[in-house]
Amino acid sequence: MDGHKQYLTDLIEGKLTRFVIPVYQRNYDWKPEQCKRLFDDLVEVSKTGRKEHFFGSIVSQTPRGERIVIDGQQRITTVFLLLAAIRDQLTTGVVTSEEEDLAEDIDDYYLIDRKHKKEQKLRLKLVKSDSEAFSAVLDQNEDAYVQSSNVTQNFFYFLERITYMDISIDELYEAIKSLCVIDITLDPGDDAQLIFESLNSTGLDLSEADKIRNFVLMNLDQERQEAYYENYWNAVERNTDYKVSDYIRFYLAAREAKTPAIKKVYPSFRSYAAKRFHDPEAGDLGIDAKGLLEELLRYSKYYRLCNHPDTGVKEIDSALRAIHLFDASVTHPYLLNLLDYRASGNIDDAAVATVLWCIDSYLFRRWVCSVPANALNKIFETLHGDALKGVKDGASYPEVVKYLLTHKGGTGRFPDDNDFLYSLDTRDFYRIQNRKYYLYDRLENGTSEERIEVVAGLERGDFSVEHVMPQTLNADWKKSLGDDWERIHEEWCHKMANLTLTAYNSDYSNRPFKTKRDMKDGFKDSGFRMNQWIAQQTTWGESQMKDRGKMLEEQFLATWPFPTTNYEPKKMLPELAELGSDTEFTGRRIAAFSFIGDRYATSQWNEMEVKVLKLLCELEPAKIHSLVNSNTYPGTAFCGDEAQGFSQITSGVYVKTNSSTSAKIDLLKRVFEVCDISASELAFEMPVGAELD
User: How far from 198 is each of 185, 195, 216, 627, 685, CA to CA, in Å?
Assistant: First the structure.
């Protein structure tokens, strides 16, 4: 095996000019997203005057005058498509070059090997499913373009970018010639398959945080690298318990009101840094590294408080501890913003505590009532920004938050007292896994100054959740319950009214009630407040469980109250609903929609449908083209030609728009599935009760 650095264009132009993609390789699957990254990098290379841009490695074998590509086909194919696009834009006159024969040179040096036989004239041989599309592109045969191929759609993308770029075609061409690769060629005895598996194995890949650290620090001089790492990055690692990738995902959600996918944290961070910390005088990357790291460090301190509450304010720390114990990491984007708002002096501690306890009630009531959690990401991404709109109109921050949460609909709703009490009376509170730590800690300790370490005791096994009336009834228990013991046991066994904390050996749980009451560590000897009333009972049956159930209802309502507020917004705030939610859209008006973090104003569902499909087409053009005449939509939703009731998405793709709102929503859900994009990436803003300004 031999490897060395080489310019990619020199590699393509060299003696072993024909690259062959072996049949065991996957199809070409780069999308416009990856092509955009390459093109943006090339523009940056041109504008900064850099002489080299590292473009990864190319691994190949070289039998019989060909290069069999083991690794690197995605990059090679993309560069071929970009060169073909430059050639086409030159020959059609869209752009002009100072070099009169540049289009012909690209053909001769890079795309076409005229010394080979006709069937081997292309310098790149793709796998069969891509080969037809690639041949049509290089032959400039528009009638033969394969619209559903990534090859074709990425070629179209490059044509578009070249048309509107702000550098010259010669500057772009020179930037391509700056692409450097590590050219690794295998010896005849090397096992190509073994090397291929090794290159694509699930080894110790760089984490998203590793990539971000390298991105921010790599281009600094050594002195600043060491200083910034020690003063900022290392501190961020400590504040986040070394779970930096998770933290930055929540940080981006807080700053951008959109949570990136786990595998897209790094590219999302790069985009955020370029947008918020752009500094053209800060070197090759043009990023204010110090300012960016200062913000990362600041928010990491808030993240630490989310997981290790220590503000010094008892009510705030108690509420943060409860939310953390509930395992509600979905709230982190909002909490980061709230704690930053507090640190800036914009809200007092009492108001912060009020808001946190309101969120605690919101989370717990939803859990008790089994409300699906799919709406929570969007709610906590946008809650702070929406609250600030009310504050701007002169309202109190906590009152706005109360209003926003209590006016959510569908899967975002805040269950009222009736729903809450019904679920309290009907749900199984025994099989609740780790939420039992949160539940019994809150019930036992409440706001008392004297705390019992419920969580630690349950974790160690010193305490346990026990049934007063046992799960398995012996003869004594059946007799004490009476003739209706079977119904009573089935109805009440796992209800909250029959459950409590104990410190006695669970082997005793089947003993008669009086024995469990009077024995060592029994109910009379218990240090738990929740057992004081039980200890006063002479027997345990349906009557006692009904009475305890009423007391628990009062305690639940007091511990997790439904917030009330007199606040009414001057301008009705929109309801947010994701595509994948259970919201009823029929009969509703639309004010705007958000797609992958960007907001678009619209007042028509038709307009929204067409715009969203156009945005999807930018991301997945081949898949959108594949919907025409697809069995997924049998001749009703998409067509390839202009027709009445249809609107154009792109050349050769039209969608039916004279349909109901529910049909549009259903169609978009199915298209998102085809494109393998989460339905949570699309959210709608719908006016509530009044027109938006």
Answer: 15, 5, 29, 36, 47
